[in-house]
UniProtKB/TrEMBL annotation:
This is diguanylate cyclase. SUPFAM superfamilies: Nucleotide cyclase, Sensory domain-like. The lineage of its organism: Bacteria, Pseudomonadati, Pseudomonadota, Gammaproteobacteria, Alteromonadales. Gene3D superfamilies: 3.30.70.270, PAS domain. The chain crosses the membrane at residues 23-43, 330-349. The keyword Transmembrane helix applies. Keywords: Membrane, Transmembrane, Transmembrane helix. Residues 396-523 form the GGDEF domain. SMART domains: GGDEF. It comes from the Bacteria. It catalyses: 2 GTP = 3',3'-c-di-GMP + 2 diphosphate. It comes from Shewanella colwelliana (Alteromonas colwelliana).
Length: 523
């Protein structure tokens, strides 16, 4: 009995030891698994938050760039007809020029349906030509007895102070006719530019009333998330685009109760006054905002531009919905132990790789033009500034060439934007074939390019540009059967006062002279 008891005790001890060690191992495994899941959970939460933040900022940038691009088209159309010799002749009293200009303004309005009015004023503020788009989309030339005087309107008074070739952008508000807000509401931005005689005398102005509803429609179309809300807020905190139509444009009606984003979301508004771009977390959700200019891009000589805030709101329900999958994954990881843990680790790694890839892509996109693969304006401006300083220290030469693609708008209008894109990409192709590795090329606007030639004078730069122009002509013939054409101007670093703006401006002026010469030869 003693022996049997001892055997039983040993067996019981072994069983207990196995049980105890199993419990310890199980506890350690469960503890380790909980630690891994906990760390993974925290990191995944941060990754989702960061990914959502990047996505929202990207969406803000896309909408903002689309709005500025839209307004840049308006600026281009305005300067095209207002700064023409025909406009000056019409204001000088030429009926033939007036008829031709009227036809040109009709064509502009037909090609781009976003203009409520396109007008020509004389120096006294009297309308000389007014083409209006009715609400049914039909264009109407105002008869002489319906032309109005707008000398006392704020936008006309503002443009009187502009220098030649400058562009004025009015506040984004509602159209006013005969002292009353037009019904139904017609959101409007007025673009104006003065017209001067050859002697520099102010003789009139060109004005385009842009249908601002199209801007608001762009915001709606690019807000790709169903539950997100998009706002457009002016600098005074009023809604230009809000949740409810009745809250919008209240500043146009001082006799009504004033509703402002600034009062509805005071914490968010205070943060918006401290930074041009940012994110604000509230109990209701996340607000992302960006301050930008409601005016054409920097290629135009814009005298002013109303600032506005583009705001995206992500509701808390959407944020929690984004975490729902993660919470389910944590439960499954715990239930399935190691296999699901490995799967979650793999998912996390995949998420981080995608995050890094997105960051690198955004960094690349920030300095490159998407269509051509060349650098963008900001990149070449930075590069040119550094090389101006470097060339001065080394007493080396530096040349700059400004390129403008001819007939791009006509190509877009006649053959479509795909054909126009081929013209743009063709320029990039011949540039890359012709310049050295040490040179730097960029697309700085819709049809404008800039090349910086290091250790090169203007004569050699012109020779390179002749080769580029010839190659561009041949490329056009081979691809489309038509000759492609460009205008260019080359200059070089002259003196100690030269800077980025002056050398680009000088090259731009030379390019324009080349374009005028080309037109003269064509005639």
């Amino acid at each position: 009995m003693g022996i049997m008891g001892s055997i039983d005790n040993v067996a019981a001890g072994v069983s207990y030891a196995k049980y105890k060690r199993g419990v310890i191992y199980s506890g350690l495994l469960v503890l380790f698994l909980l630690m891994v899941i906990g760390i993974t959970y925290v990191v995944s939460m941060q990754s989702i938050s960061h990914e959502r933040e990047n996505m929202q900022y990207t969406e803000l940038a896309i909408i903002e760039n689309s709005l500025v691009s839209e307004l840049s088209i308006v600026g281009a159309d305005l300067t095209y007809y207002a700064h023409s010799n025909i406009a000056a002749s019409a204001l000088a009293g030429s009926e033939r020029a007036k008829d031709y200009l009227t036809s040109l303004m009709f064509q502009i309005s037909l090609l781009y349906k976003h203009y409520d009015q396109i007008r020509l004023f004389d120096a006294k503020g009297d309308e000389v030509i007014r083409i209006a788009q009715n609400r049914d989309g039909m264009l109407q030339l105002a008869p002489a007895d319906q032309l109005q005087n707008k000398y006392d309107r704020y936008y006309f008074q503002d443009l009187l102070r502009l220098t030649p070739k400058q562009t004025y952008t009015s506040a984004f508000d509602l159209n006013v006719e005969h002292g009353e807000v037009e019904q139904p509401f017609k959101p409007t931005i007025r673009f104006a530019t003065p017209i001067h005689s050859a002697q520099g005398e102010f003789i009139g102005a060109g004005v385009i009333n842009y249908n601002g509803q199209d801007l608001l429609d762009i915001i709606d179309s690019l807000n790709v998330h169903d539950n997100d809300k998009a706002y457009l807020i002016n600098r005074d905190g009023y809604y230009l685009k809000g949740d409810r139509p009745e809250d919008e444009w209240r500043f146009m009606f001082p006799d009504k109760a004033q509703v402002r984003f600034a009062e509805d979301y005071p914490i968010v508004w205070r943060r918006m006054q401290q930074a041009d771009r940012g994110k604000v977390e509230t109990d209701r959700g996340e607000f992302y905002f960006s301050l930008f200019q409601l005016s054409p891009n920097s290629t135009f000589k814009t005298a002013n531009g109303e600032s506005a805030y583009l705001v995206m709101f992500v509701p808390d329900t959407t944020i929690r919905e984004g975490y729902k999958t993660l919470n389910s994954g944590v439960v499954l990881a715990f239930l399935l132990l190691v296999p699901m843990f490995i799967f979650l680790a793999y998912k996390l790694a995949s998420s981080q790789v995608e995050q890094d890839r997105l960051f690198k892509q955004l960094h690349f996109d920030a300095r490159h033009d998407a269509l051509t693969g060349l650098y963008n304006r900001q990149a070449i401006v930075d590069y040119l500034g550094k090389n101006i300083s470097s060339c001065r220290r080394r007493k080396a030469k530096l040349a700059v060439s400004f390129i403008d693609v001819n007939l791009l708008k006509k190509t877009n209008d006649q053959y479509g934007h795909d054909a126009g894109d081929e013209l743009i990409k063709g320029v990039a192709t011949v540039i890359n074939m012709s310049i050295r590795e040490c040179d730097f090329a960029a697309r700085i606007g819709g049809d404008e390019f800039l090349i910086v030639f290091v250790d090169c004078d203007v004569a050699n730069a012109n020779r390179v540009m002749e080769r580029i122009q010839a190659a561009y002509t041949v490329l056009g013939l081979s691809q489309t059967g038509h000759q492609w054409s460009m205008s260019y101007g080359c200059t070089q670093l002259h003196n100690k006062t030269d800077d980025v703006d002056s050398i680009i401006e000088r090259a731009d002026k030379l390019m324009y002279e080349h374009k005028v010469a080309q037109r003269s030869e064509a005639l």
